[in-house]
Design goal:
This protein is mostly beta strands and 105 residues long. The protein has no helices and nine strands. A five-stranded antiparallel beta sheet has the order 1-2-5-6-9, with no helix packed on it. A four-stranded antiparallel beta sheet has the order 3-4-7-8, with no helix packed on it. The relative contact order is 0.20.
């Protein structure tokens, strides 16, 4: 399990407009083990910080427009064996963009 993790959000709201910027941090942790020959090697995941953004505009007719970006800084997911000098995997999941319309009555 991750010993240190936190989530922090800054938001602004005025009239029909809302926006927020959120960050999530998790420290390194041992997630699994690999067998290499007769040796079991722990796989450690590196610390990561992910930044997300969202904006919403609410109309008076009940229609809301939402725009969001996940992983704004394109943070990779890294794992290694023993220490960071022995990388095992480096994954970039990229940014994700979403545009949506909600209706409530």
């Amino acid at each position: 399990l991750v010993e240190k993790s936190f989530n922090f959000t800054v938001f602004y709201s005025y009239a029909n407009f809302e926006t927020r910027l959120s960050t999530t941090y998790q420290d390194s942790f041992v997630g699994e083990s690999r067998t290499i020959g007769p040796t079991v090697v722990p796989v450690t995941y590196a610390p990561e910080t992910v930044l997300d953004y969202q904006a919403k505009y609410k109309t008076d007719s009940g229609v809301d427009f939402v725009f969001s970006v996940g992983n704004l800084t394109n943070e990779p997911n890294r794992s290694y064996m023993y220490d960071e000098a022995l990388p095992l995997r480096l994954n970039w999941f990229g940014r994700t963009y979403a545009l949506g319309v909600n209706y409530s009555f």
